[in-house]
């Protein structure tokens, strides 16, 4: 059996620590990102809602977090399709809930 060298283990450990730090930073930025998204929806700035929700969807995909990526992508799609304001706000609420679940899951996993 070939065991990894100590250098390989150190590199793997460093890469994991870097990824964990990146995910933590992204999760910590969620409240501010949601504030911007909600403010854009309040202003009825639908182009900004699309931009912000696409950014959140990308973030979710980068973190391998479908819990966030899917509802954020759906919000972008319904907003871009110029669905009713009520439908857009329903999807916005789903994104807010998903962001809370993503942060909670991350917090519990870190315990």
Q: Output the structural class.
A: mainly alpha
Number of strands: 0
Number of domains: 1
How many H/I helices? 4
Largest sheet: none
Sheet-strand content, in percent, reads under 5%
Shape: elongated
Distance between the termini: 33 Å
Please bin the fraction of helical residues: over 70%
Evaluate the radius of gyration: 17 Å
Order of helices and strands: HHHH
Brief rundown of the structure:
This protein is an all-alpha fold.
Describe this structure as you would to a colleague.
The protein is mainly alpha-helical. It has one domain (about 30-110). Helices cover about 85% and strands about 0% of the residues. It contains four helices and no strands. Helix 1 (about 5-40) packs antiparallel against helix 2 (about 45-60). The chain is elongated, with a radius of gyration of 17 Å. The two termini are about 35 Å apart.
Keywords:
mainly alpha; 4 helices; 85% helix
Helix and strand arrangement:
Layout: H1 6-42, H2 46-62, H3 66-80, H4 85-109
Helix pairs in contact: 1-2, 1-4, 2-3, 3-4
């Amino acid at each position: 059996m070939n065991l990894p060298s100590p250098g390989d283990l150190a590199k793997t450990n460093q890469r994991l620590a870097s990824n964990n730090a990146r995910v933590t930073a992204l999760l910590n930025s969620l409240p501010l990102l949601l504030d911007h998204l909600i403010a854009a929806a309040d202003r009825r700035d639908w182009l900004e809602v699309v931009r912000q929700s696409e950014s959140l969807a990308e973030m979710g995909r980068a973190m391998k977090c479908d819990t966030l990526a899917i509802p954020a992508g759906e919000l972008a799609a319904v907003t871009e399709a110029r669905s009713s304001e009520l439908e857009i706000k329903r999807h916005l609420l789903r994104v807010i809930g998903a962001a809370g679940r993503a942060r909670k899951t991350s917090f519990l996993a870190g315990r």
